[in-house]
Specification:
- The protein is an alpha/beta fold and 529 residues long.
- Among the domains are: 157 residues, Rossmann fold (3-Layer(aba) Sandwich); 114 residues, ANL, C-terminal domain (GMP Synthetase, Chain A, domain 3, 2-Layer Sandwich).
- Helix content is 28%, strand content 24%.
- β5, α5 and β6 form a beta-alpha-beta unit.
Length: 529
């Protein structure tokens, strides 16, 4: 199996076995293949040719899953769009890709129409309601080469201009089969599509679960209480949630009212996770936890914190510590951690360097962006921009994004270390630590906090809490109490938005007023979308 279009057809599961559960609708494997063939033929009849970009703007849906497979069958390059972007941003992306068709739904129609009013390069929009449901005809499979581009993702990014990540058939298929082996995914599994399907945190499972013969459980939107009910009702066995979702899930007041015994594995990726949150996940959900790390450019997984053969039997505390780390390299990639001179750092878990990667699931480059591609690679190794340590077993642990390191008075402050301490405080639901300009120290450590429901945070007490757990230069000296943290469309915390509030002299930008440690709740959240 060399191409994405072959994955669904290559599954050996029985025709009448359950393939998809979506908002009360169940379809079997035969019906799913028929629907994929019908949509593939429909798109080909519209003139969507091999190699052409086909954009989709939708919530998680059955149609999204079908289009992922149908586009690959006809050789089109599917372009999943971040539905949280504003029309101006979407129009710029469509102009860059040259997409001639845009698939939209009733949930995204207004945004799609507003986008097309700004970008006249798209020739037609296709409503998901008009897509055919079945056919008796088998759609011809485009004879793609493994190195042809099959997906085009525009990175949401926590800063900077989106980059066009072109993933090949080899990237996607290699990742699907490696994930099946690494996570023991099989026909009995029911994957919860809960994270956005436009993002690789979930999209990879559209192919990995299909190749394994498992069942897709599609959840249109994330709401903690509703998700707990879906896990119980639909028997979800495995899923991947970004840390924010996972944190909200385990702190949902009604969690004790649900039977979650179907869950065997909870993955979390997209951002570092605090060990305290991992402890709560294991204790509350009662299933195995694995931290994943990756990027859109790597299909996405680069590491998994599943001990596997490295440490088969360890004490519970040590197992929790290992699972809270970034983890060991994914089977398809080689990893290095190097210093500023490109020399591998010591495996003492202390020296910090940048993670480099190469392998079958690393993308070939940014689409039509040669300068960005050249900057991203160093002698065949992809530069992730993530800083980490590595231990003697090969387990890496991210300490920060290179751009998020805070240098205060000549000392490096890793935001993840400070955030881990803040997460341990019972009043804190979420937090983000970042640096702001400071005339005396160069940068000062600042923290944005979201309180647990019904709790008012006293920042004086939080600062005292930090001082007994962190060196003085790591303790935040300024606080923002927010109702919500600014986020990218994929749910990552947008620290650039927090930093942009501050001027070069360390004062709030424009008309913002710094109330420092005296700031209390009751203000509007920052807009991160």
């Amino acid at each position: 199996m060399d191409t994405v279009g072959e994955i669904l057809r290559g599954s050996e599961r029985p025709a009448d076995s359950l393939a998809v559960i979506c908002e009360g609708t169940e379809i079997d494997h035969h019906s799913l293949i028929s629907r994929v063939d019908a949509v593939a033929l429909y798109l080909a009849d519209l003139g969507v040719a091999p190699g052409e970009r086909l954009a989709i703007l939708d919530r998680n849906s059955l149609e999204y899953l079908v289009v992922y497979h149908a586009a690959a069958v006809i050789g089109a390059v599917l372009q999943p769009l971040n539905r949280h972007l504003v029309p101006r941003e979407l129009a710029a992306i469509l102009r860059h890709s040259g997409a001639r068709w845009l698939i939209e739904s009733s949930a995204t129609r207004q945004r799609a129409q507003d986008t097309l009013a700004l970008d006249h390069s798209v020739e037609a929009s296709i409503a998901t309601e008009t897509l055919p449901l079945e056919t008796t005809e088998r759609a011809p499979l485009h004879p793609a080469s493994p190195d042809e581009i099959v997906h085009l993702y525009y990175t949401s990014g926590t800063s900077g201009v989106p980059k066009a990540v072109g993933l090949t058939h080899r990237n996607v298929v290699s990742h699907a089969h490696a994930a099946i082996d690494a996570l023991d995914i099989g026909v009995a599994d029911r994957w919860g599509h809960i994270a956005p399907m436009f993002h690789l945190a979930d999209a990879w499972a559209c192919f990995g679960v299909a190749a394994a013969g498992g069942t897709h459980v599609i959840v249109e939107r994330f709401e903690p209480g509703e998700l707990l009910a879906r896990i119980e009702r639909d028997g979800i066995t495995v899923t991947n949630l970004i840390p924010t979702m996972l944190n909200l899930l385990v702190k949902e007041p009604t969690i004790g009212e649900h039977d979650l015994s179907s869950l065997r594995l909870m993955l979390s990726g997209g951002a570092p996770i605090a060990p305290e949150v991992v402890r709560q996940v294991v204790a509350t959900l009662g299933c195995e936890y694995v931290q994943s790390y990756g990027l859109t450019e790597t299909s996405p997984y680069l590491t998994l914190s599943r001990p596997g053969g490295q440490n088969p039997i360890v004490p519970a505390d040590e197992d929790l510590r290992m699972r809270s780390r970034t983890g060991w390299s994914f089977p398809t990639v080689e990893l290095r951690v190097v210093d500023d001179d490109g020399v591998d750092v010591s495996t003492d878990d202390r020296q910090v360097g940048e993670i480099l990667a190469r392998g079958a699931t690393v993308f070939p480059g940014y689409w039509q962006q040669p300068e960005e591609t050249e900057e991203a690679f160093d002698d065949g190794w992809f530069r992730t921009g993530d800083l980490a340590t590595i231990d003697a077993t090969g387990s890496v642990n991210i300490v920060d994004r290179r751009k998020d390191v805070i240098i205060s008075g000549g000392e490096n402050v890793w935001s993840t270390e400070v955030e881990a301490v803040l997460h341990e405080h019972p009043a804190v639901l979420e937090c983000a630590v970042y640096g702001v300009p400071d005339e005396r120290w160069g940068e000062a450590v600042r923290a944005a906090l979201v309180a647990m429901e019904g709790v008012e945070i006293d920042t004086d007490l939080i600062e005292e809490y930090c001082r007994v757990r962190l060196a003085g230069f790591k303790v935040p000296h300024g606080w923002d109490l927010l109702e919500a943290l600014p986020r990218t469309g994929s749910g990552k915390i947008r620290k650039a938005t927090l930093r942009e509030r501050w001027g070069a002299g360390g004062a709030p930008a424009e008309d913002e007023e710094d109330t420092g440690r005296d700031r209390r709740s009751g203000h509007k959240p920052l807009d991160g979308e």
